[in-house]
Write a structure and sequence with these properties.
single chain; about 250 residues; alpha/beta; Rossmann fold; 7-stranded parallel beta sheet; 7 strands; globular; binds NADP nicotinamide-adenine-dinucleotide phosphate
């Protein structure tokens, strides 16, 4: 039995791959041989840099996931460009801090924006990827949720936690009811991971807040998430379909 993670010949779409966890995942997948569709929103230059650095004929692809009409075209655009699609890693996400004392309009607008980017667009991408994977009787979906889905989050990040909870039940449903069509689906639930998003949180709460919370000495980094994604895309872990993998440095075990 080969224990080598080999993704050569596979095309993987990674959303939000211009920086942070998505960039780390793109690097990991390419390191295992995959051709990566490096999706970005605002940071084209960074996405180009990622794509060039990882090689394997990887390419960049733009889409604003807060615009559901744009999102509808993303999966097809990747298939058109690459000629195939083997796996999707839904990683792009936002965490908007809005106090529960904010006026209703501000609070609701933040809630809807969060849901559009984190959950609604992810669902559209999953629907389209599932349709394609059913045709080829093979495909992997890895959805990046969060520890917050299980542990809850502070009162200014309610929409964030709820959006990440929605990802969990969607992914479990895909795994259970499209499995016989060859579709495998997994949830990764990171804790604090050193990225721009976590920096925003730490600016608010302090780095000690994060460090005191974890069982290890170092905060998690994108490179600590990437190998698991590569393993799940490889097919070596297919019988774990539907599962959630916590990568939170022991800050929440359940
Ligand atoms: N960092 C953590 O502590 C942590 C913990 C648990 C879960 N997560 C989850 O892990 C994922 C990645 O987080 P991160 O920390 O790497 O975030 P990040 O550093 O803030 O990067 C976010 C990525 O998402 C993309 N993105 C944001 N808004 C978008 C939009 N409207 N349309 C399309 N793409 C958009 C960004 O693209 P551009 O830069 O091109 O605009 C960027 O590539 C998220 O789903 C997050 O919820 C993170």
């Amino acid at each position: 039995m080969s224990m080598k993670i080999d993704l050569s010949g596979k095309v993987v779409l990674v959303t939000g791959a211009s920086r942070g966890i998505g960039e780390g995942i793109a690097q990991g997948l390419a390191g295992a041989g995959a051709r990566v569709a490096v999706h970005y929103n605002h940071n084209k230059k960074e996405a180009e840099k990622v794509s060039q650095n990882i090689g394997n004929q990887s390419f960049i692809i733009n889409c604003d996931l807060s615009d559901l009409n744009q999102t509808t075209g993303l999966v097809d655009a990747v298939i058109q460009k690459a000629g195939r699609l083997d796996a999707v890693v839904n990683n792009a996400g936002i965490a908007i801090s809005v106090p529960d004392t904010a006026d209703d309009e501000t609070w609701t607008s933040a809630w809807l924006q969060t849901m559009n980017v984190n959950l609604n667009s992810l669902a559209i991408i999953c629907k389209q990827a599932v349709a394609h994977f059913k045709q080829q009787q093979q495909g992997h979906i890895i959805n990046i949720s969060s520890r917050a889905a299980f542990r809850g989050d502070t009162t200014d990040y309610l929409a964030y936690a709820a959006s990440k909870g929605g990802i969990v039940s969607l992914t479990r449903s895909i795994a259970r009811y499209y499995g016989k069509d060859g579709v495998k689906a997994f949830i990764i639930a990171p804790g604090f991971t050193r990225t721009d998003m976590a920096q925003d949180f730490m600016d608010q709460y302090g780095e000690d807040y994060a460090l005191n919370d974890i069982a290890l000495n170092q905060l998690t980094e994108p490179k600590d998430i990437a190998p698991m994604v590569a393993l799940l895309c490889s097919g070596l872990a297919d019988h774990a379909t539907g599962c959630t993998i916590d990568i939170n440095a022991g800050s929440y075990v359940h």
